[in-house]
Amino acid sequence: MLMHHLRVLPLLVRMHVRSQMEYRGAFWLDRLAQILSYGSVFATIGILLARFDTLGGWTWPELALLFSFQLLAYSLGAAMSFVQLRDLEELVRLGTFDTLLVKPFSPWAYLVFSGLNIGYAGHVILAVVLMGWAVLSVDFTWSVWSASFFIAALTSATLLTGALITMIGATALIWVRSNHLFSIFFGFWELTRYPLNIFPGGIQTILITAVPLALTSSVPVGALLGKPIPILGDWAGPVSLVGGPIWVLLAIAHWRYATGKYQGAGG
């Protein structure tokens, strides 16, 4: 069964990518719009830095590294989860999710890989270019250890993003409606473009625990650069590395619980 899944997944991805690339001009224009949109957000941060020199003790290159890390981790994690799990609410409401349950295939795997969103290419391009500049400009001596930590923390942040989105989407299997929770998710996500220490203690706690999106931005980047991390302190680095895998396990448990509670279109 595992080998069957592994053979089918690339086919699902290839079919979906072909459908998204049917109108290539429109596709790349949309990606350009994304780059300009997020570029304007970063430009806003630049305006703040031009006025105040630093933000929470973070310099311009350091904030560029933070912003690019956050954007890249989100885009990689969301490409594997957001649109697919957002649409799950509609599948549940219309009863079409039932058809996935009778397929000889994991419903989660089918949802994720048949809807792999290459539309995040614009996010990735901007994040990689900005990250390349930031890595060369930041006042930091890179080593094999720090580079390894950076890659591992980025992987963990990507996993954490996908896990949180999966848990939100899976809630539709219990409540039918869950997309309103994405508004809460993105409200907190936008805060993580900035250093954690500029926020009040209550928000810092939420961003590390209940909605741990700080682990996808300022906590790992701050730990790498030697910045003081509120609440976590010296534990910031290890927590950044284990956060993603732990939340993946929680997401798996939540998905199984939600599918167990699912009663079909009739309620």
UniProtKB/TrEMBL annotation:
<feature type="transmembrane region" description="Helical">
    <location>
        <begin position="235"/>
        <end position="253"/>
    </location>
</feature>
<keyword id="KW-0812">Transmembrane</keyword>
<feature type="transmembrane region" description="Helical">
    <location>
        <begin position="196"/>
        <end position="215"/>
    </location>
</feature>
<feature type="transmembrane region" description="Helical">
    <location>
        <begin position="32"/>
        <end position="52"/>
    </location>
</feature>
<feature type="transmembrane region" description="Helical">
    <location>
        <begin position="64"/>
        <end position="83"/>
    </location>
</feature>
<dbReference type="InterPro" id="IPR010390">
    <property type="entry name" value="ABC-2_transporter-like"/>
</dbReference>
<dbReference type="Pfam" id="PF06182">
    <property type="entry name" value="ABC2_membrane_6"/>
</dbReference>
<feature type="transmembrane region" description="Helical">
    <location>
        <begin position="142"/>
        <end position="175"/>
    </location>
</feature>
<keyword id="KW-0472">Membrane</keyword>
<feature type="transmembrane region" description="Helical">
    <location>
        <begin position="108"/>
        <end position="136"/>
    </location>
</feature>
<protein>
    <submittedName>
        <fullName>ABC transporter permease</fullName>
    </submittedName>
</protein>
<keyword id="KW-1133">Transmembrane helix</keyword>
